[in-house]
Amino acid sequence: MDHLIYDDEQLKDLDFIRTLNIQSLELVNCDNIVPKLQSSTIRQLQLINCNRLISVHSLQNYDLSNLEILTFCADKMGQTDQNLVSQILKYQKLSQLILIGQKINVNPLSQMVQLTYLSINDCGLCNIDALKSLSNLEELSLDWNNGVDITSLQHLTQLIILQLNYCNLISVDALRPLNKLKYLSIIKNSVVYIQPLLELNKLSALDARYNKIQDILSIQNHPSFQLFKIDFQEQPQQQLLKLAKMMMEINRPIVLQKQMNKLSRSLVLKHNILQQKIVEFLQKQYGDHVLLSTRVSLLLNIMNALEDCQ
């Protein structure tokens, strides 16, 4: 809803609306945004880049009792009410909450135990103790919260998907108890050891690009890894070749990424379908991103790698 025309007659018959998406409006509050809607029918509400929106108190004038998904996204931190979370506690059917670029007090989140999906990205968080009571959470994203303390995450044992990208983490020890975790992304942190993740038996995908990992070979002891992403720019070639061979032997893919001149291209190499001439051509034309899967070698030195990994 980029241009709002307020007309009672136009709005009175819109009681069928289930999703309301309001973007890039100069809103001060939410009075009269949905004056004629049967607001109890709304299941999903999105307020995106409404930078003058300083309060949602007027939403209380509407019956949003069936609201299930709520998104607040601002492109300027600090524009919204820090008490935003406490103002939406009344939405007891809310199962998904997305907050992006908000300067907020997250303590009231401890009462929203019904949440199964929570995304709090780029909100300047450090202390997230309030989250430890959210025992029903299955998906959590805390991207771009530089310096956030993830100790409290050990209590969220129902988590299946977890994103902690750009958080300046140095350790993943706190994640040991998350036995149901299947996907973990820790892009652009300072993690050195991933050994603690070997205890997560259901973890099948790990994106650990742009870290300082020193024990990449430990991943071979994990029982269920299906996908492993790591940058190879600073990794010893010998270790990478060993890792490639190991992943091929257990029939699991690995993604190795290297940035060059801020460009990234991708290639999928499968030894069982590539003939010699194709391999030679790819060797000359390779990009910065290579996917290793069943019987696939490193593009760093593709011919030697193929020979070593037979």
TrEMBL record:
Coiled coil: none annotated. Transmembrane segments: none annotated. Signal peptide: none annotated. InterPro entries: Leu-rich_rpt (IPR001611), LRR_dom_sf (IPR032675). Keywords: Leucine-rich repeat, Repeat. GO terms for cellular component: cytoplasm. The keyword Repeat applies. This is Leucine-rich repeat domain-containing protein. It comes from Hexamita inflata.
